[in-house]
Amino acid sequence: xxxxxxxxxxxxxxxxxxxxxxxxxxxxxxxxxxxxxxxxxxxxxxxxxxxxxxxxxxxxxxxxxxxxxxxxxxxxxxxxxxxxxxxxxxxxxxxxxxxxxxxxxxxxxxxxxxxxxxxxxxxxxxxxxxxxxxxxxxxxxxxxxxxxxxxxxxxxxxxxxxxxxxxxxxxxxxxxxxxxxxxxxxxxxxxxxxxxxxxxxxxxxxxxxxxxxxxxxxxxxxxxxxxxxxxxxxxxxxxxxxxxxxxxxxxxxxxxxxxxxxxxxxxxxxxxxxxxxxxxxxxxxxxxxxxxxxxxxxxxxxxxxxxxxxxxxxxxxxxxxxxxxxxxxxxxxxxxxxxxxxxxxxxxxxxxxxxxxxxxxxxxxxxxxxxxxxxxxxxxxxxxxxxxxxxxxxxxxxxxxxxxx
Length: 405
Hints:
Elements: H1 4-12, H2 15-22, E1 40-41, E2 47-48, H3 60-70, H4 72-91, H5 97-101, E3 107-109, E4 114-118, E5 121-124, H6 137-148, H7 166-177, H8 182-199, H9 209-218, H10 227-250, E6 256-264, E7 270-279, E8 285-294, H11 301-314, E9 322-327, H12 331-340, E10 343-346, H13 348-359, H14 366-381, H15 383-395
Helix pairs in contact: 3-4, 8-10, 11-12, 14-15
Organism: Pseudolycoriella hygida
Protein name: E3 SUMO-protein ligase ZBED1
Main location: nucleus
């Protein structure tokens, strides 16, 4: 693992760095004072040199605000100077000009590794996680000697004789040494929680080797919390925040329609969901899934009614604002909507699907469907037949299409 303290110690003990210190130069990793102090005198509270007024608090934000309101010309000039210094810092030396100018040329920095060499001794090398089928270093060296190695011209930065761009070195030094603030760490953690919720991935993703490697590249000083932190704290917190947004959103609408449906998962777990639909002030249809509950009890009309009642209370929706309830033709859903006192509207898509299923069972259609199924089975099982169909499509100028799954 990369150890910042060890790396900094080796850099500071480097002969080049010691020589630079002897010349009254130093490596300054700390931030420079704000340029706003040029126009203020440090006392109990900052004293403005231009007008003699005291500014409450030593926070530079208040000092900038004072210059903007009372000395606008000075404020504009100082802002320009600050921006110029920031640009020079990005293009120049963010960790001390004298130190970076004297950095040894054998500091090798690549996108997938950070290697520092001093007196032919490797200090650190960060690599991608090795898979179980990756060849060992001995085998790799053998394959390289057999003519499979990269040519020197392919990776110019792989030799210690090639100078490394100073900006690249400075970027890595800043990226590695700057600690992740609490606010930034919180943002990253909530972003991971949002990714888990929206992508519907398992909580174990945060323990995946590839994911941790990705986070180590993006935020080296950020520690990824355990899966329990996300399952017990972060995702529930995100759920509550989203729920509050929906509650505030539906306050603007007058009337709603609900849609409910149930299904059984591949693990034989029964679920029931409730969706709220309404039209906003711009005549745009808005739909929000209020809940998707695991139904541990019998899915009778009475139980579904009780569940829907609790969800409506949870989201502070009065029954008088519900104009209709949409469901399939299941007797339990119809009974639940009637018990709730809503007008039942059959689901159009479900009605069409039901009629199509009835049509394909008619006697005069069954023989045709049988032939189609035989053709499909032949093409899906035989690669020769599939290739022949594709060549026929090309011969007549049609775009080759794959068989539907």
